[in-house]
């Protein structure tokens, strides 16, 4: 039985999130020997090379207007989002960042009202978002109900959230022009890497490729570069094209649940009743936002 394009989009988004939900483990291991900017640059360089291997076809210049949109997508989704998120974690707590960055669907919905008129969300979406945010909050705090406020770190996390929402909207608008999804994603990566170069100097980037002789480092950078970057960005952009930026963005709420499961299985972290309640609320929020249950017309 053939699946509808909408169902294909949802399944693709779910598979993407399954991978993205475990990337924190690979990043955590790499942070023992790498700076955040080094992980970011190596990750997306490897992803860019992988996309060339997967689809070795040149992507001609598409005109200033279109190339400017590609550049903005690379700036928002590759350079700014990951830089803001990584730097935010050095100034504020992971709980704060986890809660703030999971507001992406709200930002995406607000931007869609102005830039993608066909994707205006209904009342169910906002109610589902509210429930999911409460669930994410419980998961992030996990029993530690002390919110450590740091204006700079929290503000950077808010900017990260906004940048990913912008990336989702730009991806949707670019994909509407019929470009091949791998070529489009590769162009995003190219501009993202180019715009990342000034940050290499500012954050004292070091090559030290000998670090990849350690199997753990090599495996984890391959996982991040090939799987979480090249393949997942293509699959995410494909899902956005089929379903829409607003509806697909709600899957981001599933990441905290997946990271908790991975932490329990791999890092032997405890599973509390607060985590269980938060996970249930997050799932209910996703289902409600997707319109599976109608509470508000």
The average pLDDT score comes to 80
> Could you tell me the strand content as a percent range?
under 5%
Level of helix content?
A: over 70%
Which quaternary structure do these chains form?
single chain
* Tally of DSSP helical segments: 13
Between the first and last Cα atoms, what is the distance in angstroms?
Answer: 32 Å
Membrane topology: Multi-pass membrane protein
Subcellular location: Cell membrane
Domain EamA: 8-140, 152-288
Transmembrane segments: 12-31, 37-56, 68-91, 97-116, 123-141, 147-167, 188-205, 217-238, 250-267, 273-291
Structure write-up:
The chain is mostly helical and 297 residues long. It has one domain. It has 13 helices and no strands.
Characteristic key phrases:
single chain, 297 residues, mainly alpha, 74% helix, globular, disordered C terminus
Short description:
The chain crosses the membrane at residues 12-31, 37-56, 68-91, 97-116, 123-141, 147-167, 188-205, 217-238, 250-267, 273-291. The protein has helices at 5-20, 23-30, 36-54, 64-91, 94-101, 104-115, 123-141, 151-175, 181-202, 215-243, 245-249, 255-266, 273-289.
